[in-house]
Specification:
There is one protein chain. This protein is α+β, with helices and mostly antiparallel strands and 135 residues long. Helix content is 28%, strand content 28%. It contains 3 helices and 6 strands. The strands form 2 sheets. Strands 1-2-6 form a 3-stranded mixed beta sheet. The relative contact order is 0.23.
Length: 135
């Protein structure tokens, strides 16, 4: 099965719509929005706890420990002034850790799908320039 076909199957199973995805205009890969991540976590009843690994004024690392049934995954989110335009480093590191954990547990990472919060360059372009992936 091709990645595109599997992506469409996953999108349907998680009730994701075109608003939850977009194709990055520069990099070409599929990006899932924050709301899409939340939908996946809700459908799969993914439970997440967090640990602060590092919390300095200019650099934060958060570890997410996520479980889905018996499956367990650990992933990290980081934020600093070089990879984050906001000054809310803890919140951004948490979002990144959560997103990565959810994408790993739900198979999306294996298909090359990334979260829009993983990097500033992954943000959705303006609506006029957006290329949504149809589910």
């Amino acid at each position: 099965m091709k990645n595109t076909e599997r992506l469409k199957e996953l999108a349907q199973s998680y009730e994701l719509t075109g608003e939850d995805f977009f194709k990055h205009p520069t990099f070409g890969f599929v990006i899932i929005t924050r709301t899409g991540i939340e939908k996946i976590a809700g459908v799969d009843n993914i439970q997440i706890t967090y640990e602060v690994v590092k919390c300095d004024a200019d650099f934060v690392v958060i570890k997410a420990i996520a479980t889905k049934g018996k499956a367990r995954i650990e992933s990290y989110g980081e934020a600093n002034s070089k990879n984050c335009k906001t000054s809310y480093f803890v919140a951004m590191a948490e979002k990144r850790a959560m997103s990565r954990s959810v994408l790993k547990l739900s198979e999306f990472y294996r298909l090359g799908v990334y979260s829009e919060v993983e990097a500033e360059e992954f943000k959705r372009p303006s609506k006029a320039n957006s290329h949504a992936v149809r589910s």
